[in-house]
Fold this protein.
Amino acid sequence: MQMTAEAKSSKQSASKSGASREIFLPPERDRVKDGGKPHLSAKNFSIFYGDFEAVKKIEADILSKYVTAIIGPSGCGKSTFLRAINRMNDLIPSCYTSGSLMFDGEDVYGKYTDEVQLRRKIGMVFQKPNPFPKSIFDNIAYGPRLQGVKEKKVLDEIVEKSLRKAALWDEVKDRLDKNALGLSGGQQQRLCVARTLAVEPEILLLDEPTSALDPKSTAKIEDLIEELRGSYTIAIVTHNMQQASRVSDYTMFFYEGDLVEYAPTKQLFTNPRDQVTEDYITGRFS
Amino acid sequence: MNIGTRKILDRSFTAVGLTSILLMALALLVVVVPIVSGGIGAIFFKGTIEHRKLQLREFDNGNREVLDRQIAESEPYRQEVFRMLDAFAAELETFEPTRKREYSSKVSSVKDIVSHLLGPIPGEPEPILLRFQYGTTRWEKAEESLHDLMFVTKWDTSNPEEMGKQYFVPRVDEFAGTSLAALFPYIEENLEKMLLPEQTFYWGFLTERSLDAHIFGGVWAEIQGTLFLAIGAMLFAFPMGVIAAIYFTEYARENVFTSILRSANSTLAGVPSIVFGLFGLAFFINTIKVSDSKSVLAGSLTLAIMILPTIIRAAEEAILSVPKTYKEASIGLGSTKWRTIVTVILPAALPGIITGGIISLGRAAGETAPIIFTAAVSVGATIGLGDVLTSPTPALSWNIYNLASEHEAANEIRHVQYGMVLALISIVLLLNLSAILLRARISKKLKG
């Protein structure tokens, strides 16, 4: 995909389903090497809970190695969309999808797609820190062990590398054998990031990763996202618009299941094309 | 409702609640205190020299030298009793026939009591049953027999309007004027010297087999049988129950079939245990013939079916109480469903599953009805581990009932019954206690 024509900024009423594909300018922050290819493309992609259409006919690409924020009021379908990307919604029996969601040229919901392999490539960090009630080491080693890594030396390396990436190594290196539930909330969340990174995913999905954390821990997670930008494709759902504007290159705005606006972050926050977007980012509703 | 009324209602409810709890505690105390004191009496009591003889000869316990010395010490007093009986037998020969007949029946009941107290009388034929080969082993029983010796029990039925009244006549009066009259004061005075009672700790009650249908010896066969049955039941029910719980919580879809399964499971939990007993007989023994007749295997299977619903329910609750986030985390890392269950969900649910299991184990140990037809015998040998597939076994729960109601000398062995009850209660309490400790330990480990 090429990055040409500037997105139109005419303010219209909510462009309902079937919004045409946007072509973006490169982000104004430093560009990322080899980035900007569509890593995930949704075509006419809808998600249903029973009869209820929670996400309606999304048309969008998520670009590789950049950070894409997904914002919107509660119940707008943003988390549902994020969880659909690595098929976590499979855990909900009544949930099904239509349309297509392509990941690296493969349909995520294809008949022959192995969702287990898929989730190894698309890792996820959840709203509430959810370490296993095991030691810190075992938490990080859980993913690699699933893939059959047994050697202690290799595991040691992976654990250290992942914890370093998640900026947690210095804090926990002396107590790797202690139970992870003994860590603080912020540490637990970084542990969860490290645990996801240990599987070496291509895409990192963050589902409101700081909503349960204090400001200090939140800042650390945001720093971490900044660190990871350029190495992983990151999609982050957040309630916090400042956070979205701080950490992301692109922003998707969801409203009542529609992808109302999708634009480079700065553009969306300074010059929203859509009235609903403007109302939301200026705090008229939330 | 104003504040005043509300407070009065609150207080009166507190009072009612507290009263009912206190009443329950009191009732428990009323049951437990006699059981514990009676049960301790089976292990800690005043044992006579006969008890020590029995222990040495039958179980090879005790010090032979000390015993020989004590036998030598008590022998002169015993010989004096036997001498008096012999003397009276000689005197009896001089009596005229009617008097002789009268006295010989009187003296034979004296002899019965004396041999019950001291063991076989020399010169009488050697008894075959073990219970007659020894005298009284417990001092409080000896005191009862002494009373029987000293007094004849008679019934006053002179007033036909009333129930007959029991009264006692000194036995010595029956022998007034004969040489045997001296026997009674002599035994009364010297019984302690003949039996040499001393405080005894009889741990063997818990570890030794019983002799002559529980007249002597311990209850090891029953304890072992109970353990075999309970553990055997767990071997079947625990894995099956946990697997069923995993199916219900993780695999089953909500449809008519699973809701039927669920309600069948709940119903099964409420079926009376005797029905399981009959089912076990009809199915395991008569239909699929796991053994020719009663066996530990058949009993274990029956108990397993009985405790299965409880285990399933407990495991289901435990699995459902594992935070969903663990599962999400594991699935999100690219784990399969099965792997998630084995490595994350089951370890986190383990405290609950184990608690349910051990409480069921306690229930299996205590149940009587399911094993009546399938596994229990009232008197049986101590079986080995190799016999469990084919042999029946005595078991505490069944033998408590049996000894209390059907034993030919139920009154003589009250201490054994109490001892069994105490052993059973202790086993169940120990199991529950270990469940609590294990749970606490695993929970602590999980919490970090």
Summary: The interface with chain A takes residues 253-254, 323, 325-336, 339, 343-344, 347-348, 445-448 of chain B (CB under 8 Å).
